[in-house]
Design goal:
With about 110 residues, this protein is an all-alpha fold. It contains 5 helices and no strands. The longest helix has 18 residues.
């Protein structure tokens, strides 16, 4: 995997980045970036994308009905959770419900 030049791996100290921020990188992001990357034809990625195909149909045109939005959000939550990411159950569906309620209130006022 490359020549060994007798140089130790660089371990930068933890610091707050003070560009137009602060813009620290969360440890979960760093951990995720350290994982192996899946290629676009990897069978595991294809399997996950198959679970999300409902997005293509469920949220387009006439099919963009409330029940389909909630089905899509639920499916997406399952896939993301299955990837090992912490997703508070029902958060996306709750936010969509609040948005729909707000839209309905605005339409009647």
């Amino acid at each position: 995997m490359g020549a060994d030049f007798g140089v130790e791996s660089f371990q930068p100290p933890l610091r707050t980045l003070m560009g137009p921020g602060p813009s620290d990188v969360h440890p979960r992001v760093l951990s995720a970036m350290a994982r192996p990357t899946l290629g676009h034809l990897d069978p595991e990625l294809v399997r996950m994308m198959d679970e999300l195909k409902i997005w293509r149909v469920g949220l387009m045109g006439y099919s963009s009905r409330e029940e389909n939005v909630f089905k899509c959000l639920h499916a997406f939550e399952r896939v993301v959770s299955g990837m090992g990411l912490a997703v508070p159950a029902g958060d996306a569906e709750g936010a969509a419900g609040e948005a729909l309620a707000s839209q309905a209130r605005a339409a009647t006022s």
